[in-house]
Amino acid sequence: MNHRAVLLTCFLCLALTQNEVDSQKFGDVQAVYEWTTLDLDWPSEAVKEEFINNGSFAVDKNVVSGIKVYKNEVYLSIPRWLSTTGIPVSLVKVVKVGSEVKLRPYPDWASQTVGDCQALQYVQSMEIDPNTGRMYVIDVGRNGLFAQSGAQNLCPAKIVVFDLHTDQRVASYDFPDDVVKRDDNFLNDIVLDYVDGQVKYAYITDVNAHSIHVFDFGTKRAWSLNDEASMKAEPDGGIIVINGKNYTFSLGVNGIAMSPNFDYLYYSSIGAYSLYQVPTSTLRNGGSDGIRLVGKKGSQSDGMAFSCKRLYYGALSKNAVCYWDIEKDMRDQNKDISHVTLNTQTQLVKDDQKMQWQDTFAIDEEGYLWFTADRLQLLFTNTMNFTGSEINMRIYKVFINETSYLHGAPGRTNNNTAGQRFGGTLSIINLFWSLFLTVFLSLKRTE
């Protein structure tokens, strides 16, 4: 046996041994942060008092929603949902100030100015490319989407790109009004699509338009896929039962997730049970072919995320996070990814009191799935308790021993090698990559 064979054998043994150890930890969960009300990293106490006194900061209007994690740094969104005032910042980074956890406006205070179309108006979600350290932020451009007084339609919707290594904005792309309506959009979730080793497209759900918007970073063009049949609320899905109470959320397409081989996009509406699949080739070419019902989830869901192996999603009526073991279903059904149906749905974590409304997901580089649990059903029915006697918002991380669909994408997609058909026989490149990630995560945790 030559030295290469010996090295490969040792590598395989180490990977298999580590998998046995990690399988015992799968599903371990911890609450990382908890808040009754949010507090910002203010320039000074005087500024904080001024914002409170003039109504620019109201604790009962600030609730976290989106989450992304990069190099152990946590980024959150605070959507300007219910009011056009009282929410001074919409994108933050979690920081430690002395012994206190604060939310620091990201990248700075000036970038949050309402009415300045160069600044962020309303951030719902974002995506971080771990290969480059760039964060892609979707800005709705509108404030107070659900305010009783009506929304402020201030700016065009846009994608803003930040370099997390320098905390600088490196790009910004406005959506044309004929693609994303300035006065009626509700951009909600975003994923990235790699082609030939680089980010080529972004796909963004629009709850109001029942659409998935496509942005081509190469040509700077945008277009939409609209399919009412699969992107609106279902007759039996608009009422979500949480701990015995009915909440009406007849909302359209919301959560999306990208398959690890970048061949398919998955999506679902909040007011629906159905999970759909559409080929990225359809989205890239501006077509509408190939939309397929994959199956029914056990509950309505908000956000979702694909790791390198499984599709994770919230089960709103169950106060739980579940996952679809797609590889198992493909084996059991003897079908490939384009024909397999949603069957094996497994509960990952659950807590009826502490995990209400699993909003948004993130997968870090150390094998953890992060998510926000923010009790939005209470916020939107004006029953959330901000007096201090209850915890309203929590951030959890769960060990899954997997990385995100984006991890290692440049190498996997260079020269169109991404295919290798996820769910089929793994190529040698993907096999080595999978083994490398396993050992890498092991070494990171033992440092």
From TrEMBL:
It is found in: Secreted. Residues 1-23 form the signal peptide. Keywords: Membrane, Secreted, Signal, Transmembrane, Transmembrane helix. The keyword Ligase does not apply. InterPro entries: 6-blade_b-propeller_TolB-like (IPR011042), MRJP/yellow-related (IPR017996). It comes from the Eukaryota. The chain crosses the membrane at residues 422-443. Belongs to the major royal jelly protein family. This is Protein yellow isoform X1. It comes from Aplysia californica (California sea hare).
